[in-house]
Design brief:
The protein is mostly helical and 111 residues long. It has four helices and two strands, in the order H-H-H-E-E-H. The protein has helices spanning 4-11, 23-31, 37-52, 71-96; strands at 57-60, 64-67. The chain has a two-stranded antiparallel ribbon. The chain is globular and about 50 Å long.
């Protein structure tokens, strides 16, 4: 079953970027069976929740998911997430034809 405990237990075997694991393989490791898209989405939701709790779960499309072994790995993942968020916000601002800082009123993010 994919839940916070099983995800943390599985990720405890994947510490550092060199031991990263893709979502599909992580689901198989946790569930012991074929990974369907719904299970992968569930995994991503659990990882998001764990990150919100402060767990240092890193991951990029190239590296897969893993627990940070170094500050550099954590910073690299945070930069990846920040850049992805900025790309999304820039698209929204362009579609709404507003400047990025004006997207949400007083929101002031560097562009």
């Amino acid at each position: 079953m994919i839940c916070r405990e099983t995800v943390l237990a599985a990720l405890s075997r994947h510490i550092g970027a060199a031991r990263g694991i893709r979502a599909r393989e992580l689901v198989v490791e946790i569930e012991g069976m074929f990974a369907c898209p719904a299970h992968e989405r569930e995994l991503r939701h659990v990882i998001e929740s764990l990150r919100r709790e402060g767990h240092h779960i890193c991951g990029t499309p190239g590296e897969g998911y893993y627990l940070a072994a170094t500050d550099e790995e954590l910073v690299r993942t945070c930069t990846f997430l920040y850049d992805r968020a900025m790309t999304t916000l820039s698209q929204i601002a362009a579609m709404r034809r507003v400047a990025l800082p004006d997207l949400r009123g007083q929101l002031r993010l560097p562009t």
